[in-house]
Design brief:
103 residues, 48% helix
């Protein structure tokens, strides 16, 4: 989100959305292995990256930075195929390991 606040043109919004799409959804292409579609493993994340890049670039059309960030957060309410794909709340949930100061 800091990168989005620092970027001031639509190309940067596209590339940030592209890499969010690739790094967040790389695992979706792995399911094609089970259907003997191994050639789709690198293609699926790239397509998803382009889709999220376009969605982020669409959010750039909003005039103010606060509205742009609200638009980015509203992307998480798009649920294709009934699954919560882009869930920003993941960053606020504890994982398997309990965080502590002891290390």
């Amino acid at each position: 989100l800091v990168l989005l606040l620092k970027s001031k043109n639509s190309k940067q919004y596209f590339w940030i959305g592209f890499f969010v799409g690739i790094l967040w959804f790389w695992w979706i292409g792995l399911s094609s292995i089970y259907f003997n579609l191994n050639y789709l493993v690198p293609i699926v994340p790239i397509i998803i990256g382009f889709i999220y890049g376009l969605l982020f670039r669409l959010c750039y059309l909003l005039k103010f930075d606060f509205l742009r960030l609200c638009g980015i957060f509203c992307i998480s309410f798009i649920h294709p195929l009934g699954f919560d794909w882009l869930n920003w709340g993941i960053f606020t949930v504890y994982g398997f390991f309990d965080p502590s100061y002891r290390g």
